[in-house]
Design brief:
By secondary structure, the protein is an alpha/beta fold. It has one domain (about 5-160). Helix content is about 25%, strand content about 25%. The chain has helices at about 25-30, 45-50, 95-100, 120-125, 150-160; strands spanning about 15-20, 40, 60, 65, 70, 80-85, 110-115, 130-140, 140-145. The strands form two sheets. It has a seven-stranded mixed sheet, sandwiched between helices. It has a two-stranded antiparallel sheet with strand order 4-5. α4 (about 120-125) packs across α5 (about 150-160). The longest helix has 13 residues, at about 150-160. The chain is globular. The termini are close together. The relative contact order is 0.23.
């Protein structure tokens, strides 16, 4: 599924709570987590930040890029790694299958995307376990924290259905 240019603006609004960059501290982030939260990060910088805060995500989705520039993808040695192809501005069926599979594996799991991981937030929102908290970066603004709910699942599903 591809993201048509005509609907790009609809994908720019945060799906959850936006924490401005200077306030995205370990303490602030922990206020959004329960003791049993299944933490998911999408994006290299967000994943790196959580690892540095010792808030190890159960699922990490990275692509070795930050703001379209190459970087070293965050590593977490004990994570099981899966690799998937997902071109920019797309969500492939293979990516959806890999995300579903990751939810059945023992955490932590790291999905390394050849291409771009940005839009994979949507299938993660749709398929994540009930107690999930998803974090991703909002470029030049801060960190978005999304607690999974029926409302969030439905919103993500509607956005995916807009794609071609």
């Amino acid at each position: 599924m591809k993201l048509p240019d005509s609907i790009r603006d609809q994908f720019k609004n945060p799906l959850g709570v936006l924490i401005p960059e200077p306030q995205a501290t370990k303490e602030t982030i922990q206020k959004h987590l329960d003791s049993n939260s299944f933490v998911i990060t999408v994006g290299d910088r967000t994943t790196q930040k959580m690892i540095e805060f010792d808030l190890i995500p159960s699922l990490m989705i990275v692509d070795g890029q930050e703001k379209r520039s190459k970087r070293q993808a965050p590593q977490f040695d004990s994570a099981t790694q899966i690799t998937v192809d997902n071109p920019a501005a797309e969500i492939t069926l293979q990516s959806i299958d890999v995300i579903k599979k990751a939810f059945t594996m023992n955490p932590p799991v790291r999905i390394l995307v050849n291409g771009e991981e940005d839009l994979l937030v949507l299938p993660v929102c749709i398929h994540a376990p009930e107690n999930s908290v998803i974090m991703y970066g909002q470029p030049n603004e801060g960190l978005v924290v999304v607690k999974i709910s029926t409302e969030i699942r439905n919103k993500a599903q509607r956005l995916v259905e807009l794609m071609k």
